[in-house]
Amino acid sequence: AALFVENARKGNIVSRANSIGSTSASSVPNTDDEDSDYHQEPCKELYKDQRRRAHTQAERKRRDAIKKGYDDLQAIVPTCEQQDFSIGSQKLSKAIVLQKTIDYIQFLHKEKKKQEEEVSTLRKDVMALKIMKVNYEQIVKAHQDNPSEGKDQVSDEMKFNVFQGIMDSLFQSFNASISVTSFQELSACVFSWIEEHCKPQTLRDIVIGVLHQLKSQLY
Fold it and tell me: Apex CA 124: angle with CA 120 and CA 128, to 5°?
């Protein structure tokens, strides 16, 4: 009986010790988990700060590039440098700078097209002058080689009458065939008229007809 009582007492003591140990263990915090969370939070904050700084720098560079672009446009476009009395001394807005740039580019395109048309016209004039120069040189050379032919030459008045008769005949067909409502129609009609009424045989018949009409004046 004494041994049984002693064992029971020891069992109660062990049971109470285990319960106290488990309670104490449960009340002690998990330091490993807390250390892990403690280290993750600063890393997240550091990563966010780095991204925020990188985004801020990229945005600043973008704004600086845009500002430089508008400043360059104002320096290049002459109309942006002129005083705008409707605005006064205020700084030009981005919308006004862009509009003035567009207007100036359109003006340059018109001027370029106008200069190209002038150059094309001058080239045609130069070509015509070269042809006239060659013809006059041939006429002068012919007179120099045969100076005695000038006695029996046709008068300038008769030459003009022959020329007038040929041109009058050509103008009749030209006036009946050519449309002048637009430049495109004029160009198309001129080429078709040349192919139809300026053939060598047609011109020969016209010249012979004019000479027959002026035969009495020639002899």
Answer: 170
- Confirm if 72 and 99 have CB atoms less than 8 A apart: no
What tens digit of pLDDT does each residue of 174-200 get?
888 887 777 777 777 887 888 888 888
Tens digits of per-residue pLDDT, 41-60? 677 778 888 888 889 999 99
Looking at residues 62-77, what average pLDDT do you find?
A: 90
Question: How many other CB atoms are found less than 10 A from the CB of residue 30?
Answer: 8
- Name the one residue in this structure whose structure tokens are 């109660």: 12
What whole-number distance in Å separates Cα of residue 152 and Cα of residue 136? 20
Report yes or no: 217 and 161 within 8 Å, Cβ to Cβ. Answer: yes
**Which residue ranges form the domains of the chain, and what is each CATH number?**
42-116 (4.10.280.10), 157-218 (no CATH)
